[in-house]
User: Which sequence fits this backbone?
């Protein structure tokens, strides 16, 4: 009878140790996940701050140096003259 109780105790102890191990692994994985999430949030905030600073600098530079006016397109008369001459040949 004592041998049966000993066997039951060993099985219970093994199950308990297995549960403890799983709990420790789960806690470790959760801690890793949370630390990665925190690092990602910090990195995102830093990149956002850099982007906003660059955009502000670009706006300030654009205000100091207005953009040159765009060149006008070539007159259509050149294209019309070419098409008119090809029609005359036909």
Assistant:
């Amino acid at each position: 009878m004592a041998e049966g109780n000993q066997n039951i105790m060993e099985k219970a102890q093994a199950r308990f140790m297995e549960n403890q191990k799983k709990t420790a692994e789960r806690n470790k994985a959760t801690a890793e996940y949370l630390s990665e999430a925190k690092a990602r949030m910090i990195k995102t905030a830093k990149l956002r701050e850099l982007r906003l600073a660059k955009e502000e600098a670009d706006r300030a530079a654009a205000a100091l140096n207005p953009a040159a006016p765009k060149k006008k397109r070539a007159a259509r008369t050149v294209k019309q003259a070419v098409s008119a001459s090809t029609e005359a040949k036909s």
Notes: The two ends are 117 Å apart (CA to CA). Helices lie at 2-64, 77-89.
